[in-house]
Design brief:
The chain is mostly helical. The protein has helices at 3-25, 29-55, 65-68, 79-88, 94-113, 121-147, 157-173. The longest helix has 27 residues, at 29-55. It is globular and about 50 Å long.
Length: 174
């Protein structure tokens, strides 16, 4: 397994969050909705990896590429399969699982049946606010899985600057 794939997933989360912030600033609710669901899927995948790593005898876990990447013609786990794995492995609660299922169904209705349903743009904007609450909840879960219950040290100004520059280079390269 290439650690590049894992690094790509981690960096894509940060990059997608920047894109989500931009969508929110521009009032692009449909884009924001899709980015929220995509971000949550990526965070759940990370949560599964962190949980499996912590449970492994030597705290190493050689995860399948299928869990974190999908190249052309390859199969990966669907969002619903990831939600179920995260529930089964204790990454998320049954209540959060139900919220994610609802969010996924709403996103699909917006993407596939927006013009054929009673959904309004105001409904989508309201859903984005609810999705942000779930996103923040998931970030807290990942933070604990990644860093433990005790907070990690704060990044220095230089480290934050270097991290942002790396993200912006990734965004501009795409």
């Amino acid at each position: 397994m290439s650690y590049k794939y894992f690094d790509d997933l981690v960096h894509s989360v940060a990059t997608s969050r920047l894109l989500l912030n931009k969508a929110q600033e521009n009032g692009s609710a449909i884009e924001g909705l899709c980015l929220h669901v995509s971000l949550l899927d990526a965070l759940l995948r990370l949560g599964i990896i962190y949980t499996r790593t912590q449970k492994a005898p030597d705290h190493t876990y050689d995860f399948s590429k299928r869990l974190i990447r999908q190249d052309e013609g390859e199969r990966t786990y669907s969002e619903r399969e990831i939600y179920q794995q995260a529930l089964n492995e204790g990454v998320i609660s049954p209540e959060l699982h139900d919220k994610l299922q609802h969010m996924f169904a709403f996103r699909n209705k917006v993407v596939h049946r927006f013009n054929l349903s009673d959904i309004t743009y105001a409904d989508i904007s309201k859903a984005c606010i609810e999705f942000e609450v779930v996103y923040q909840e998931m970030i807290k879960i990942i933070d604990v899985l990644e860093n433990g219950p005790h907070r990690p040290r704060q990044l220095t100004v230089e480290e934050r600057k270097a991290s942002r520059e790396k993200l912006f280079r990734k965004i501009s390269a795409e």
